[in-house]
Design a protein that fits this description.
single chain, about 100 residues, alpha+beta, Alpha-Beta Plaits, 4-stranded antiparallel beta sheet
Length: about 100
């Protein structure tokens, strides 16, 4: 399993950004094998984590025309700066709660 960590400093977000982000999230999850996708912002900072089964899935996603067009708009219009990190998850630990809130 791999995680793509996208960190950005927001310049300006608009309706086009919201529409594009929702479309790309759905596309990644339904057509490119993305397993999980989380995005949060605080002030001018945004962090997005997406989880992928292989690096090949990530490469295919990165080269998709809609994603490439969004990257261009992001660099020109929506973000002051950004960085992308790709890491392999070697181990995972969890403490999970059931529906009653009890840990299992």
């Amino acid at each position: 399993m791999f995680v793509v960590i996208f960190r950005a400093r927001i310049k300006q977000l608009d309706e086009e950004y919201s529409t594009t982000a929702a479309r790309l999230r759905e596309l990644a999850l339904t057509e490119f094998g993305c397993v999980e996708f989380y995005s949060v912002s605080e002030g001018p900072e945004e962090v997005t984590l997406s989880y992928w089964p292989t690096e090949e899935h990530i490469r295919l996603w990165k080269s998709h025309p809609e994603h490439s067009a969004a990257q261009k708009l992001g660099a020109e219009k929506w973000y002051e700066s950004y960085s992308v990190q790709i890491a392999e998850i070697k181990r995972e630990y969890a403490r999970l709660a059931n529906h009653q809130g009890n840990f299992i």
